[in-house]
Specification:
CATH topology of the domain at 596-734 in chain A: Penicillin amidase (Acylase) alpha subunit, N-terminal domain
Number of strands of chain A: 32
Number of helices of chain B: 4
Distance between the termini of chain A: 67 Å
Oligomer: heterodimer
Shape of chain A: globular
Helix content of chain A: 25-40%
CATH architecture of the domain at 596-734 in chain A: Orthogonal Bundle
Number of domains of chain B: 1
Largest sheet of chain A: 11 strands, mixed
Shape of chain B: elongated
Structural class of chain A: alpha+beta
Distance between the termini of chain B: 11 Å
Radius of gyration of chain A: 28 Å
CATH class of the domain at 596-734 in chain A: Mainly Alpha
Chain lengths: 843, 123
């Protein structure tokens, strides 16, 4: 072989070696650095074998006053025994980071609007929404204005010290697997990150642009029809604040027929969707056209408490059941904090927040559901310059903006992927939407004392004291806090800041920004909050229903589309029927497959099918569908075969029924009323809403449309799942629960598991293309002399997909079981057999 | 020959254990310089893959559910788990093999053939 040939081969070989090394080290294009990823020692494989909870470990945290003893029980729950509150918070930061470091950063970035810096430009729409809503600005200002020597300032710093101590202890080989896949390193945790995360929860639970939905509806069906659907109370009242009724109050009045478009509303919608608009659909920026963003808001929750008089054990009972997105790792992390003489609380924390939002102490237990209150309003502003405004009109003068921020979005390498200018009026952030300028005011942007509320409440000693601490500081997102104590008190209060509006008093129209007269004029007093304390009925319950019957309180709190009636009706039905409630019954209620929704809506559907067939409809599909639905017991057990048909029939009904709310060129309504409106319509068989516009020569009535929807649903499902005679549409198969990974990585998601429950039941934990939410934490507490707690959440304590603690609670959760929660008063209360691991933290 | 292979394997093991992605390539260069024979590339490639396999085995012995985790990772990229395992072995093999083959040829071209061991064919 000639020298030249040898050298040519040498060059080729070196190119292969150097090329694969370069790609392995740095990646190429979309290809990640495979060498780092696949290295058995440093890459993903290191996470596969990492003992993420060694039997014994020690670590240091700067600033610790004393030694903190952390004992992980057999459920991997860390029991933190500290000598001061701040040491407990340092340890809390450490143990949460130890199991959930990537989740900490991801969720804080979601509230900060910097997801692009972690996951790339794919997250730009989510970041833009976050920043345009002014969320990071609020967090930054709150932190800048916070006295770092104040109680909460020190708590935030202590928590950050704990997180950062763990972060600093890691070598790259020990980084969570997601960082390796993204080729990133964990960033330093700053106290302000907790505030970003808090805002994110506000966005998740209290982002409710009802006036924009109403506007869209008015533009399509006129003012009267739109307001009846979108600007009114729930047609069935089973409120959180007991109304003294023995049954729900129903107001099934006739709905006005869809009318001619409201031209003023139509003009406004058109102005919002002018060619300059960044969103492609009307009001897209406020309504989240992106399904990945939208699904995060499809939430609900339950909580209820039973008085000793109605409890079989003679003790107060409390159940917590918050419904949130079902993610892996779970949104919750279970902990127990003990500081002798100061603190003894357990429950679940949100990784990144130094407080226990749902949990228990020695004296009481508490939980929360979302109020659904309308706490976000919009104003149409007039600016001095359409292209580069510097001021807005207010009371006859041009007033400079209070702030103007240039928002710069960067990718993981620091390259700019987008910019925004967000203006601020005295009301809040303002942005251009089409030809119009809209500002918004939102209680979430004016809150900031929530951590103080939780911190104070954790130190309370009774149910009333807990609620009073919350009422003093807690503003947003408004929550229905329920609490029960060992003295037998049960209480609930819809706590948060509820603005009082000028003029109409309602927050359902876009206001004129040119005058201060349209501004908020005050807030509800605590005495006006929906609430109840040890009522005569012997129980309290909330499930996102309208918190107070408008017959009792006429102040505007929100509108029907933001509430849900079905679960409230179901839990009240169960509690009314049980005069000796046991903790075991409370557990069963969590996954009770009963459905008021099905009980109320299946009969009219069956009657419609029967009527149509009696009138000569010979469709085999309709006959089969009717037979299948009639066999169903209306319970969402995992083995039932009728619920899938009912669900698809309801969805089809809504699509056909509200075709007048469908913008030309689209297949689904732009805005959809709540399902509770079906109750008004099914008793009004000739209402014009039943008529389908597309069939101009036929006027459908209730029976025609319901039968058509049932037939269409059946045909759809035959295509999707096969003939039900040979391949039954078993609920557990066609509607399983399926928690997904935070980054929606298919390999790190959970396998689907069948569950009892579905839409409108107390356990709506069903995944779909657009939503994957459900029971994120189930807890039953018996408030005896020493509270007994049982609980579970889907997933596991570890955030490492390779860890045996990643999914170890999932099957138990899917089966509706609860685990016993340990509540040791001190470290010696846990025997060696109780302990899975220990961690000693010192300075 | 066997001693040389064992030496190359140990070299790869140490290099990959402590130097990660660069280790296989650096060990490949050393193997190429030391062996300088026509089989330097193959030797380096095979020992690099063997070292990676050995390190994976160590992870299994420490409790890693290799197959399960490979399936999880592979699913994220719409790949079967075995592809991830094969890629884990192939990458250091290509790095080390390429570097060793290239370096050994350069050395041979400029320094003459002076193998440090006698392969059966040479003998």
């Amino acid at each position: 072989m000639s020298k030249t040939t040898t050298l040519a081969f040498a060059a080729l070989s070196l190119a292969v070696g150097a090329g694969t090394t370069a790609v392995g080290a740095f990646g190429y294009g979309a290809l990640p650095p495979l060498g780092r990823l696949l290295s058995p020692t440093f890459g993903l494989w290191a996470n596969a074998s990492a003992e993420d909870l060694p039997a014994s470990a020690t670590a240091g945290i700067t600033g610790l006053i004393g030694t903190v003893d952390v004992r992980y029980d057999q459920r991997s729950v860390p029991h933190i025994f500290a000598t001061t509150d701040l040491d407990a918070m340092r340890a809390l930061g450490y143990v949460v980071a130890r199991d959930r470091l990537f989740q900490l950063e991801l969720q804080a970035r979601a509230g900060e609007g910097t997801l692009t810096e972690l996951v790339g430009a794919v997250a730009l729409p989510a970041d833009q929404e976050t920043r345009r809503l002014g969320m990071p600005r609020t967090a930054e200002r709150n932190w800048q204005q916070m006295d770092t020597t104040s109680q909460i300032g020190r708590v935030l710093l202590a928590y950050a010290a704990g997180v950062n101590a763990y972060r600093a202890s890691l070598s790259p080989a020990q980084y969570p697997v997601e960082y390796k896949l993204l080729n990133r390193a964990p960033r330093v945790w700053e106290p302000v990150h907790s505030l970003h995360l808090q805002n994110r929860m506000g966005y998740t639970l209290a982002h409710d642009p009802v006036e924009l939905e109403l506007l869209q509806a008015r533009a399509l069906v006129g003012d009267a029809a739109a307001r009846a659907l979108f600007d009114s109370d729930s047609p069935v009242q089973e409120p959180i604040q007991p109304a003294g009724n023995v049954s729900p109050r129903e107001m099934l009045t006739a709905l006005p027929a869809p009318g001619a478009p409201d031209t003023a509303a139509a003009r406004l919608v058109a102005s919002f969707t002018a060619p300059r608009a960044t969103g492609s659909t009307p009001l897209a920026w406020a309504r989240n056209a992106d399904p990945l963003v939208a699904q995060a808001r499809a939430f609900a929750s339950n909580n209820w408490a039973v008085s000793p008089a109605r409890s079989a054990t003679g003790h107060a009972l409390l159940a917590g059941d918050p419904h949130l997105e079902l993610t892996l790792p779970s949104i919750w992390y279970e902990v127990h904090l003990v500081v002798p003489g100061s603190l003894d609380v357990g429950g679940v924390v949100i990784p990144g927040l130094p407080g226990v939002p749902i949990g228990y102490s020695r004296q009481f237990a508490w939980s929360a559901t979302n109020t659904g209150a309308d706490v976000m309003d919009f104003w149409q502003e007039t600016v001095n310059n359409e292209t580069a405004p510097t001021a807005y009109e207010l009371d006859g003068a041009m007033v400079p903006f209070t702030d103007t921020r240039i928002e710069t979005y960067r990718d993981a390498k620091g390259a700019v992927v987008g910019t925004d200018t967000v203006y601020y009026t005295h009301r809040g952030p303002m942005r251009r939407q089409g030809k119009a300028w809209l500002s918004l005011r939102w209680t979430v942007l004016e809150a900031g004392l929530e951590l103080r509320a939780f911190y104070q409440a954790m130190h309370a000693t009774s149910a009333p004291a807990f609620l009073d601490s919350m009422a003093r500081y807690y503003q947003a997102p408004a929550q229905n806090f329920i609490v029960a104590d060992t003295a037998g008190v049960i209480a609930i209060r819809s706590t948060g800041r509820y603005p009082i509006r000028a003029d109409s008093g309602r927050g359902t129209t876009i206001r004129d920004g040119r005058t201060r007269a349209t501004d908020w004029v005050g807030n509800w007093t605590v005495a006006q909050y929906p609430q109840g304390k040890s009522p005569a009925q012997g129980y309290l319950a909330s499930a996102n229903q309208q918190p107070i019957d408008p017959a009792q309180q006429s102040l505007y709190l929100g509108v029907d589309p933001n509430f849900e009636i079905w679960r409230a009706l179901q839990i009240n039905r169960l509690l009314r029927a049980d005069s000796a409630v046991t903790p075991e019954a409370m557990r069963r209620f969590h996954t009770d497959p009963g459905s008021v929704r099905a009980d109320r809506l299946v009969p009219p559907v069956l009657a419609a099918a029967q009527a149509r067939r009696a009138q000569g409809d010979t469709s085999t599909s309709l006959a089969n569908a009717q037979a299948l639905l009639a066999q169903w017991d209306r319970r969402y057990t995992r083995d039932n075969t009728g619920a899938r048909l009912f669900e698809t029939a309801v969805a089809t009904t809504i699509r056909l029924l509200y075709d007048e709310l469908t913008v030309s060129g689209r297949s689904a309504p732009s805005v959809t009323p709540s399902e509770s409106r079906l109750l008004q319509l099914v008793v009004d068989s000739a209402n014009a809403w039943w008529d389908v516009r597309a069939t101009a020569d036929v006027r459908e009535d209730r029976d025609a449309l319901l039968a058509q929807a049932l037939r269409m649903a059946y045909d759809t499902l035959v295509v999707e799942y096969g003939d039900p005679a040979t391949s039954p549409w078993t609920w557990g198969r066609v509607a399983p629960a399926r928690p997904s990974h935070l980054l929606r990585l298919a390999g790190f998601g959970a396998s689907p598991l069948p569950i009892d429950g579905g839409r409108g039941t107390l356990n709506p934990s069903v995944s779909s293309r657009r939503a994957n939410f459900g029971a994120s934490w189930r807890m039953v507490v018996e408030l005896g002399a020493d509270p007994t707690i049982r609980a579970v959440y889907p997933g596991g304590q570890s955030g490492n997909p390779a860890s045996p603690r990643y999914l170890d609670r999932y099957a138990m959760w899917a089966n509706g079981q609860l685990d016993s929660v340990r509540t040791p008063r001190s470290a010696i209360d846990l025997t060696p057999a109780d302990i899975r691991a220990t961690l000693t933290l010192s300075r | 020959m066997i001693r040389a292979v064992i030496a190359a394997f140990v070299l790869q093991l140490v290099a990959q254990q402590y130097s990660g992605v660069w280790g296989a390539a650096v060990a490949g260069v050393i193997t190429g310089i030391v062996l300088r024979a026509g089989r330097a590339g193959r030797t380096a490639a095979l020992t690099a893959a063997a070292a990676a396999a050995f390190l994976l085995l160590l992870e299994v012995l420490q409790g890693a559910a290799l197959g399960t985790f490979a399936d999880m990772v592979g699913k994220n990229f719409a790949l079967p788990g075995w592809v991830v395992v094969v890629a884990t072995l192939m990458l250091p093999a290509l790095q080390a093999g390429g570097m060793a083959a290239g370096v050994s040829r350069v050395v041979r071209a400029f320094g003459g053939v002076k193998p440090t061991y006698k392969s059966p064919s040479v003998a």
